[in-house]
């Protein structure tokens, strides 16, 4: 990565200057999806620089939509910018997000490397951020709304405990029999905004399983197919706190939650009313992992796996994937985000998706 300018064009270089996306944009033969233990991706070692650059972009935020050269006026990784002034990033990010080859037992169908380690694949999260930013912006422009995702300003919300001060940061739980909400180190209880995107199922199936498919070690081509977007308000409350499991990070407990969801800012006829249950815990490398299940008529239909950017109680929120609860290799699956709006479950969400904290 050559340079990130904190002003003006912000971090447009961050996405295009790390090897994977730069190579993908210029159509090189190198693989754009680093990750170990799978023929689809290159090795973890080869992807370290790409992963660090993608992580920096995720934490910086302000997802870019058009690549540019930072130092050369005419070319970028062999790609002539002047000949392609309308080139956009989101079709390449969309191709990465909806590539079902990356959803395996070893990735837990989430934003993790394909080795069962639960280590975060930051390039997946970066692509998710690009797609959600693009779709939220499109929705906002078409509806005349002022919808603001929490990654809209540089480095906003990526400080641990940055949403609001919470008593669980103290050790007073050792002295008093506090209620669960005050024992919860992740500050789950409250009102959250949940955003999901999805392709028409036929488009998703054709993209992944048509006769013309790339080699297993090559990325899929960019796609301009417009994905749908839905907004859902979610009320959550802590239901159980227990010791971390064998395969969790051991610094904090595993916390279970339950709640309900309702459609918001969505087309007539879209209903997301359901019960919610899930768990928050640490990965072995110390990232905050969210698993969430919507429950319709007593049955779990979907599942989501995500990572909270910035760590424990960070206001930036969670990015990840939603998918079929039965891990169907044919989908559906897509990108999702969830971030906290208020500690008050009775808070009313109006025409704003802004977030508190810093």
Strand order of the biggest β-sheet? 3-4-5-6-7-9-10-11
Q: What composes the largest sheet?
A: 8 strands, antiparallel, barrel
Span between termini: 26 Å
What is the overall number of helices?
7
Taken from the alpha-carbon principal axes, the silhouette is globular
Tell me roughly what share of residues is in helical segments. 10-25%
The helix-strand sequence is: HHHEEHHHEHEEEEEEEE
Average pLDDT rating: 78
Uncertain runs with pLDDT below 50, 5 residues or more? 1-44, 68-85, 351-358
Q: What fraction strand?
A: 15-25%
* Structural category: alpha+beta
Number of DSSP E strands: 11
Rg (CA only): 20 Å
Polypeptide structure, described:
The protein has 358 residues and is an alpha+beta fold. It is built from 7 helices and 11 strands. The chain has helices at residues 12-16, 19-26, 48-60, 90-97, 122-143, 180-183, 201-209, and strands spanning 75-76, 79-80, 190-198, 228-242, 254-264, 274-282, 288-296, 299-300, 302-308, 318-324, 333-342. The strands form 2 sheets. The chain has an 8-stranded antiparallel β-barrel with strand order 3-4-5-6-7-9-10-11. Strands 1-2 form a two-stranded antiparallel sheet. A hairpin with a 2-residue loop joins strand 7 and strand 8. Helix 3 (48-60) packs parallel to helix 5 (122-143) and helix 4 (90-97) crosses helix 5. The longest helix is centred in the middle third of the chain and has 22 residues, at 122-143. The radius of gyration is 20 Å and the shape is globular. The model is unreliable at 1-44, 68-85 and 351-358 (pLDDT under 50).
């Amino acid at each position: 990565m050559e340079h990130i300018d904190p002003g003006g064009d912000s971090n447009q270089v961050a996405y295009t200057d790390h090897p994977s996306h730069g190579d993908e944009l210029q159509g090189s033969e190198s693989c754009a999806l680093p990750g170990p233990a799978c023929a689809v991706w290159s090795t973890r070692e080869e992807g370290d620089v790409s992963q660090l650059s993608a992580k920096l972009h995720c934490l910086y935020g302000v997802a870019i939509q058009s690549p540019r050269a930072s130092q050369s006026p005419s070319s970028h990784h062999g790609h002539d910018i002047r000949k392609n002034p309308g080139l956009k990033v989101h079709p390449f990010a969309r191709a990465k997000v909806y590539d079902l080859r990356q959803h395996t037992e070893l990735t837990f169908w989430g934003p993790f490397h394909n080795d069962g380690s639960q280590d975060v694949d930051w390039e997946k999260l970066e692509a998710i951020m690009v797609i959600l930013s693009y779709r939220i912006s499109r929705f906002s422009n078409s509806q005349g709304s002022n919808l603001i995702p929490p990654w809209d300003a540089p480095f906003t919300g990526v400080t641990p405990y940055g949403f609001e001060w919470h008593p669980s940061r103290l050790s007073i739980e050792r002295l008093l029999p506090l209620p669960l909400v005050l024992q919860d180190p992740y500050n789950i209880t409250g009102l959250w905004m949940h955003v999901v995107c999805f392709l028409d199922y036929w488009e998703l199936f054709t993209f992944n399983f048509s006769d013309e498919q790339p080699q297993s070690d090559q990325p899929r081509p960019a796609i301009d197919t417009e994905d749908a977007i839905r907004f859902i308000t979610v009320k959550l409350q802590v239901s159980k706190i227990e010791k971390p499991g064998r395969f969790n990070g051991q610094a904090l407990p595993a916390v279970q939650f339950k709640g309900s969801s309702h459609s918001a800012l969505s087309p007539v006829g879209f209903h997301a009313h359901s019960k919610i249950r899930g768990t928050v815990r640490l990965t072995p490398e110390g990232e905050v992992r969210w698993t969430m299940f919507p429950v319709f008529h007593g049955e779990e239909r979907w599942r989501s796996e995500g990572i909270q950017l910035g760590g424990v109680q960070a206001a930036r929120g969670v990015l990840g994937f939603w998918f079929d609860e039965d891990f169907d290799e044919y989908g559906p699956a897509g990108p999702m985000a969830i971030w906290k709006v208020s500690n008050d479950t009775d808070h009313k969400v109006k025409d704003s998706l802004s977030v508190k904290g810093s």
